[in-house]
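WARN  no MSA supplied for this record, continuing single-sequence
INFO  ligand: arginine
INFO  echoing inputs
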Amino acid sequence: MKKIAFLLAALLLLTAGLAGCGGNDGGADAPQDPQADVQEPAGDAAADTGDAAPAADGTLVMGTEATFPPYEFTDADGSITGIDAEIAAAIAEKLGMDLEIKDMAFDSLIPAVQGGSIDFAMAGMTVEPERAESVDFSASYATGVQVVIVPEDSEIASIDDLAGKIIGVQSGTTGDIYCTGDYGQDSVRQYNNGALAVAALLNGQIDCVVIDNEPAKNFVSANTGLKILDTEYAVEDYAIAISKDNPELLDQVNAALEELKADGTLDEIISKYIPAE
Ligand code: ARG
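INFO  complex generated
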């Protein structure tokens, strides 16, 4: 008798686990999470876990390139954290799913979304027309600015001085796209990540680095002898990239984002990493 009760309890736990109750209501002491078991049209817009097409196993897989602080970076114990990771976790929680984060090259992210090896890409990724032909973008959750990092004693004083200079970028980023378009391939050196571009700048191999402003601030404060030019190269919107084959997930993510905007969670996460100046 006892054995059967135990088996039943184990089964319940398993079902709850499979349904991905991960953190819907942290403090439940009973194993069964009502939301996980009952497939009713969710009262609160976003949490329709019933038709989780992308992640039938209850896990939402996010792809990112994790050397982009404060949006994504690896913390002391090796896990990927930052603004994007926290917003993604909040979205997953709203959808009643667990979140898994895969780190990969930035220029692999869109192909990975298209190929289905990740459910979405979230990487301080700019909404850009050519990308929008390959993937769908969610509503924007943050703004980015392309800026120029130079050595403190550089003769480059503004964007107008970039012609004829060697510019370092992270491969496949908008910095890469703009600079290659504006100055030609020969003027641009592509690196696998921003940190490598900054290292090349410190070594004197290139004249400047074009990258997003918040990572730029991080790189400049982590090294000596660098500064950011006052003039901005471009202002952009960051959004989440989702497969064009998965409009359900796009809707769910947008609904979740809207709730997180409305209840202040989004601002809270962003200002935790980007203190107001
Ligand atoms: N915002 C730029 C872009 O979309 C750079 C993003 C780089 N992100 C990263 N996680 N390395 O191209």
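Residues 1-54 have pLDDT under 50 and may be disordered.
INFO  checksum written, moving to next record
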